[in-house]
Amino acid sequence: MRFFHYIQMPVWNDHKNQPQNRSCGLFDTEMTNQQVTKEIVKCIGMTAPGPHAILLTVNVGRFTKEEQVTVKHFVDQFGNGIYNHLMVVFTRTDELKTDIGEYIKGCPRSLKDILELCHNRYIPFKNTLSDDRQELQVNELIDRVDEVVQNNGGVCYTNEMYEEANKTLQRHVDDVRRKMKEEKRRTVKILQRDLQIEFDKKLTLANEEKGKLAEKNKKNRNWKGNSRI
After folding, report:
1. pLDDT tier, 64 (very low <50, low <70, confident <90, very high otherwise)
2. What is the pTM of this model?
3. pLDDT above 60 (res 122)
4. Which of 4, 10, 12, 124 could form a disulfide with 93 if both were Cys (CB 3.0 to 4.6 A apart)?
């Protein structure tokens, strides 16, 4: 299973049959840098040890200065290496009065810089297609994601932050396994104790019955002896 993370600017709906993805709300332009950092930490936890591809979705109607700053903050946190795993998804391209190539020629310099840094990996995405055509579009997107994964040798993106998150995750897994082992040991111990108690009860009853039978046999022998006299 491959994982990708998509950076949402603004909403891009999920579709069936796409690779498993993780997302968080980084591009609420009213968020403070502290809040964005908190969301980034959440991203790390959700995608550790790292995503295979990162999709930056951009509404063709805008690319505001606030969004540019947030992209920069994201890159500052994750490192420039993310560009090797990044692809831009232009949404609402069905609203363009020109083709996507002409649109990119006229888009802001900051967005062009992002495209150049990710080797001009982008894909137009139309929001008003019929179900069948929408499915074809999603499949094309998945194929493009696969290309990104293959170009990176199938290796997910990671840095020190992801490595630390992975260590934390592994510690959590180890802790869960240890607790499960302890719980199993306690369960076995309780079961052994209960079985021993049950065995002791049955042994006590058996000994009591044996004693009663022995006493009865003794009385019978005494009675027979007295009868002969």
Report:
1. confident
2. 0.57
3. yes
4. 124
